[in-house]
Amino acid sequence: MAGRSPKWNPRSSSTASAAAGAASALARPPVSVAGATEGLPGLGALIGNLMKHVYRRSAGETLAILNHAGLTLPQLVCLNILDECGVRTVSAIASALRLSPAATSHLVDRLVSEGLVVRIEDPVDRRQKRVTITAAGRRLVGRVERERTREMTEAVAGMSTEVVRQFSRVLVKVIAELSSLPKDVS
Fold first, then answer.
1. Collapsed DSSP state (helix, strand, coil) of residue 7
2. End-to-end Cα separation, the chain, in angstroms
3. Chain Cα centroid distance, residue 153
4. Contact status, residue 69 vs residue 114, Cβ threshold 8 Å
5. Using DSSP, how many helices (H) and how many strands (E) does the chain show?
6. Are 142 and 129 in contact (CB under 8 A)?
7. φ, ψ dihedrals at 10, nearest 5°
8. How far apart are CA 57 and CA 154, in angstroms?
9. Residue 159 DSSP one-character state
10. Which of 26, 114, 127, 134 has the fewest other C-beta atoms within 10 Å?
11. Most distant pair of Cα atoms in the chain: their distance
12. Sheet of strand 129-133: strand arrangement
């Protein structure tokens, strides 16, 4: 075990453990990501590599929830868009999902039949229908988010305390900046 950094334990905040983790992390050779370059493409490659490691270690229960609910990934993304951004037209959802309006209409029909979304009349243009998430849809999104959080926690549980601290500080900044960007997805 000599030379290895301590594993992250949410119940432990030992200064000695953190110092050992920092020293060990600094002694490790830099991680190389195939195809990573500077700037946004490099960042994209790093995020992709991170997600590959996370999904390799977990994701089974999230997939089981989706399978049990009979949801596809585009349907889950649609629910997330509606949960985060609010009421949208089918064409706005289609644009965000990069699907045809017809395919998106079928996708929405399926979500309506499951009680996860409802179509409502546009108050300005009564010919236009809008889509909004239901309480059942929000509960499902919440359940998937809780399971993904558990799986992500499990996937990174072997990281050193110092790397967890550094990564957490950076992610807080990233999330704050992403949250400040316009929410409208189309």
1. strand
2. 51
3. 13
4. yes
5. 8, 3
6. no
7. -60, -20
8. 8
9. S
10. 127
11. 70
12. 88-89, 129-133, 117-121
Residue-range domains of the chain with CATH: 62-141 (1.10.10.10)
- Residues in the chain, how many? 186
- Give alpha helix (H) positions in 70-160: 73-85, 90-97, 101-113, 135-156
> Beta-carbon neighbour count of residue 45 at 10 Å?
15
Token pair listed for 138 = 């929000």
Is residue 69 within 8 A of residue 102, CB to CB? The reply is: no
Residue 47 CA to residue 41 CA, distance in Å, equals: 10
User: pLDDT tens, position by position, for the chain (186 residues)?
Assistant: 444 444 444 444 333 344 344 444 444 444 555 555 677 778 888 888 888 877 777 767 788 888 888 899 899 999 999 999 999 999 999 999 999 999 999 999 999 999 999 999 888 888 888 999 999 999 999 999 998 888 888 888 888 999 999 999 999 999 899 888 886 655
Query: 3-state class of 34 per DSSP?
Result: coil
- For residue 103 the two structure tokens come to 């395919």
Could you tell me the two tokens for 53?
């490691």
Q: What is the pTM of this model?
A: 0.69
